[in-house]
Fold these 2 entries.
Entry 1:
Amino acid sequence: MINFYNVTKLYPNGVKALNDVSLTINRGEFVFLVGPSGAGKTSLIKVLFREELPTRGQVLFNGKNIARLKGREIPYLRRKIGMVFQDFRLLPQKNVFENVAFAMEVTGASTREIKTRVPAVLERVGLLEKTRVFPSELSGGEQQRVCIARAIVNNPVVLIADEPTGNLDPDTAWGLMRLLEEINRSGTTVIMATHARDIVDAMKKRVVAMSGGRVTRDEEGGVYSNEP
Amino acid sequence: MSLRTLSYYWREALQSIARNSWLSAASVGTVAVSLLIVGIFALLVVNANEFTRGLESGLEVRVILRDGQSRENINKLQKEIERLPGVSLVEFVSKDQALEEMKRNLQNRREILEGLQNDNPLPDAFRIKAVQADQIPELAGRLERLNGVDQVIYGHGLVEKLVSATRWVRVAGTGILGILCLAAVFLISTTIRMSVFARRREIGIMVLLGATNWFVRFPYLLEGMILGFLGAVLAGLAVYAGYMSLANYIDQSLPFIHPVTDQRTIIMVLGGVLGTGLVIGALGSILSIRRFLKI
């Protein structure tokens, strides 16, 4: 479903964020993207999301070269990809319900669809009782759940999470992982960039390790690091 | 487009007008002033056109014939004149008819003309009307070259002045209008840029959530059009009220000038003002959102 063919991303300042990356991710997979900061995880995500264009190589999404998408086709690519941002990117002046509803409004959904779908998604992420609360009054874990709710509300094919457990306590982090696993079981492909060694080691999923813009390891049921 | 999307557009547009209320008021004011002048000029041009048309229809060319032409010659000449381009009416006025007319015009002082009956000094002549006033000078030149024509008389100079005055009003008016409209576009685009800037973070998120460019753009377009329309309504009301009372006053105090007050013309001018307001608003906002959508 997602194919990277020899993708290289060179930024104008000379940094080679991706160096000849080839990678295939199939529908329904759960993939951990691991590696130190600056390894190229975020660039990989940006290229897939069409925030950045690859300098060389091709990225296919459902067989389509996303570099060739016309300007007006890009929004429809993004609707198929749910994004959980590292910095949440919630709208501070909108409450939890409105933040999630916003993702639907943007696609032109009707009021009725929004009224049934948003509470269902909020229940799924365990925030039903915080519907009218504003992001500033939520804990980091709760904000991350709002972000996940917003990412899945439009039934995306892929959910991409960049460091979603970064500032959560272990219990909350595990709760979030159970949530992501459940989303994955319902058929959504999940790609998660992370530094959480214990989670990666315990979940026994596919692990793609990156370093210096290259894929250094790609194994099914892998661990965070082979070094002790 | 769903009803919700539509109400979303309106809500966003009205909210941001309220948020930048001072700048919004300033843009509405600029549009109103510009369009006020647009309206005044439009009515001025309409009236000038009407006035010239009135004068033009009164303009005529007199072709004085040499004395002692035969009836046959005169008929031939009349045929020739009728074939010239731009001629709408040719009328022959014989010496006798001319004298009769003069008598009629002088009415109770006709004794001046006593004794001229047998020795009529007035010439035979043609009275000619042109289709358009600005063709008269050229037509006069052609008439002068015809055989048997002694002299061609027309409102020399007056016609040229009239034509150039109307043209001047149109050109100057259009120039001033253009500048004022540009100023209005600029101010609206500044207003919209403020509200876009205040919400650039939100716009960024919208785009990343898969909003189409039109979805992002539309509330701002609407905002600009609302501002333009409000300004146009103010200008339209002022133009209408001002013009109607002025026209009324002129009609009563200057009986020889009749300002144009028919409904169709007035509605066309006011409709033009409203339409221009909408276009100015839309243009202003399109200019300012373009570069925020490059994500």
Note: The beta strands of chain B are 61-65, 87-93, 125-130, 149-153.
Entry 2:
Amino acid sequence: MNYIVPEFEIERNPNKCISCGACVRQCSYEVHYFDDDGKTVLADDSKCVACHRCAAVCPTRAIKIKKYDMAYKEHFNWTPTTQKEINLQAATGGVLLSGMSNNKPYPIYWDKILLNASQVTNPSIDPLREPMEIRTFLGKKPEKLEFDEDGGLKTKIPPQIQLETPIMFSAMSFGSISFNAQKSLAMAAKELGTLFNTGEGGLHPKLEEFKDNAVVQVASGRFGVHKQYLESGRFIEIKIGQGAKPGIGGHLPGEKVTVEVSNARMIPVGSDAISPAPHHDIYSIEDLRQLIWSLKEATCYKKPVAVKIAAVHNCSAIVSGVARAGADIIVMDGFRGGTGAAPTRIRDNVGIPIELALAAVDQRLRDESIRSCVSLVAAGSFRNSADIVKAIALGADAVYVASAPLIAMGCHMCQQCHSGKCNWGIATQRPDLVKRLNPEIMYKRVVNLINAWNHEIKEMLGGMGLNSIDSLRGNRLMLRGIGLSEKELEILGISHAGE
Amino acid sequence: MLKREGQVRIPSGCAISAVTDTLGKRFSGTDIIDSIALMHDRSNGLGGGFAAYGIYPEFKDLYAFHIFYDDNDARVKTEEFLFKHYDVEYFEQIPTRKISSIGKAPLIWRYFGAVPISKMKKNDYDDDEYTAKCVIRINNEITGSYVFSSGKNMGAFKAVGYPEDVGEYYMLDEYKAHTWTAHGRFPTNTPGWWGGAHPFTLLDWSIVHNGEISSYDANRRFVEQFGYHCNLQTDTEVITYLFDLLVRRQGLKLDMAASVLAAPEWTVIDSMSEKDKELYTALRTVYSSCLINGPFSILVGSKHGLLALNDRLKLRSLITAKKDSKIYFASEESAIRVICPEPEEIKAVEGGVPIFIPFAEVNG
């Protein structure tokens, strides 16, 4: 007997259904099937994940997906979800897995921060009429510039990354997402003048042409890392942690390790790709320093080296150490950051919000007078351009986004990335599913999305009387909290609305 | 109760004006008072002030400290500090005239002193750095005491009131300087503290500013990494610190610093020669947080000369004119014509394009 009540219910309108079987063919979860008569389409509700693929492909709009209406004896503590999870574990003895990001109702501070606008005493600036600059540079900056007698520049500037938008695409490996999904991001990054990130999956030979827009990642499994790979990227990112699962490594199931994935990762076909929780050559900050400088040495000091950490309780001190260890860019990933697969308990309970981490870290680096030595990239759920403007005003140089472009490519947040059955061709390696995602079409949707956000950022900048993103960075006077406690305001370093 | 300058950030509109003689000839403050007086309506009586260069030729190598005291107690404490840290050659109450429109005044004193050689032997920084530290200490640590001028052969004079009244109050018609700047303030709050009037000064820097910068907090949080404290929370204060950091402490040329504060746009940089492109890209990336954004027009006095700078979108008026050996700047053309009816040349200062008038050897 199965104790698990389905989450969703398929409602098929018999007057509309023409028994074409599109839903049957499209559903990788095998929810829809033909009855023995070969005509009537039926559904196994228990398998439905609400990814909406069937509803989207149904030519007669005969399908609706509804919440499965099952009454429980009400209990505030023992919710249906809680009971379902216990039953799942009772049946399997396994760790609960989830995809995407923390979906518990923790405070979303972006929604409790308001932006400023100019009125009377200084004019707002119209981005349609005046230049509005959002070009962003990442990399270590010297404390000062020196010039020779003739006014020529004497200081040698460490390598800088020029971005035409403060928005980059965060790490998603080939393996966790499909080749077509990664290619779409690569194409979009190229057109937008920004970067995509290979994650810990190596760089597919067919994506070599996008290497000038790639960030290459070195994570604890070291999959796909070799000299040429390191030299391919615009910068190298050492991944220590990820917001969705701080403190643990990664796991790509063997079923997802196809020939192509195995080539890119340099591991046998069909073998599980397990990244250890720590890097086994980094047990301390001194060890990290050695890896940073080894990577710089290996790439002749031409590539900035970034270090990505999950936002955790002590992140200010950690980031200060990482900056002093020689990182050029520090990425902080908040607890709402996405993932292809994470243990549910970790995804939903470990780490802290990026808003608080970012504010604390930026202030700490300033208190230590080392903020300018390092670029700060914030990650861990930016849903729209306003979130990004707030992050930059708190102190970020740039942000990483991933979930938003995935949604632009078809993701419906069904949170089943770990199953490898993504019906939208994103988080899957099944050739029949992958080919559903056409990079030529999808990259344009991603470009549209980021261009739209760029426009909105410019509008908000202009409204604040700024015409360069440089003047927004760390400009917390542009922010006010709403409904926040004194302590929260103190950590965010902002005043309350009305002050 | 209304908060005092420094406890709260107070935006304000303003009028500014300046006259300098390129031959270094000194002239009285009458012209500058007449110029700023014409722009009466751009101030609201809540702050006016002047800076004058070349006024103390008899003490030209000594630091001239102008200090406001709330009471005699503050004076005693400050003098104890000053006499310990400087060889003070001369000091006195700054002479003033009774003016009905100028309200309750603090005690206003000035001191001329040199850094004792014995002090400098112990330190690895120069006289200017020593003096900057002393000024910051007095302003931060001695309650009721505020140093509002600390350069050599220059001085600031300011008060709560209309600038023309402030000029008369301080008897500026009796001083002679080769360069004068003036400021009339229109704060949108009424703190009524004399220290909050402009110009803002540090060492020989003096800045008068018309505008309200929207990049304030980005600028503030950047300079505070270098040990500055933006106690007054004013634009002028943070702009002064940016100049002090870039020019005095980091050694940038003044025009270079100007192109950091009002940086060329990226589209302009992109079309520069490779060498300039590298230079300006470096300036913009390394000093990105020094970019001043929003409307501003500033007149920056220093030992180097007088610099006029407008924001890069030209969101505030600033006019310049030339007649004989004199160069004029003002928020309004009329404020120049009232003291120089027929200039040889008169034009608007271009957005983001600095005009620098180096000081000549002082004559007369």
Note: Chain B is about 30% helix and 30% strand.
